[in-house]
Amino acid sequence: LSSLSLSLSLLSLSLSPSLFSLSLSLADGADGADEPAVRVSDSNRMFTLASLRAVWHGHKLDFFKTARVGAAAPNSEVVPLAEHKRARILDYARGRRPLILNFGSCS
């Protein structure tokens, strides 16, 4: 806040708390911030059943992941295009050399 808007805010606080909140909201919008001001109507979406379901679904997906940081890599099943028979990723590892997987694009 600039010193002028800060002094106006302090003056409006001494006059009325509602004017203080109005002057703060006007001062916040005047600096050209990219984010819109939080409105009262936005708060009704925070703790809905749909938002809680989305959070629960995310936690459930994290729990059932097979890859974990610091743990052994999963040995997933793959199908090489040339052979059309199933194999495991670690079947292609040789000795102590690192196995590098390149997930490229077809475009």
Tell me what the structure shows.
The protein is mainly α and 107 residues long. The protein has a domain at 1-33. The chain has helices spanning 3-15, 17-30, 49-63, and strands spanning 77-78, 87-88. The chain has a two-stranded antiparallel ribbon. A hairpin with an 8-residue loop joins strand 1 and strand 2. The relative contact order is 0.06. Mean pLDDT is 72; it is low at 11-17.
Strand order of the largest sheet: 1-2
Percent of residues in beta strands: under 5%
Structural class computed from helices and strand pairing: mainly alpha
Question: How is the main sheet built?
Answer: 2 strands, antiparallel
Radius of gyration: 28 Å
State the helix count: 3
Shape: elongated
Q: How widely separated are the two ends?
A: 49 Å
Uncertain residue segments: 11-17
Helix-strand pattern: HHHEE
> Can you give the helix content as a percent range?
25-40%
DSSP summary, beta strand count = 2
Mean pLDDT: 72
Quick structural overview:
InterPro entries: Iodothyronine_deiodinase (IPR000643). The protein is mainly alpha-helical and 107 residues long.
Which key features would you list for this structure?
single chain; 107 residues; mainly alpha; two-stranded antiparallel sheet; 2 strands; Iodothyronine_deiodinase; thyroxine 5'-deiodinase activity; Iodothyronine deiodinase; thyroid hormones biosynthesis; oxidoreductase
Topology:
Layout: H1 3-15, H2 17-30, H3 49-63, E1 77-78, E2 87-88
Antiparallel strand pairs: 1-2
Signal peptide: 1-32
Organism: Astyanax mexicanus
Protein name: Iodothyronine deiodinase
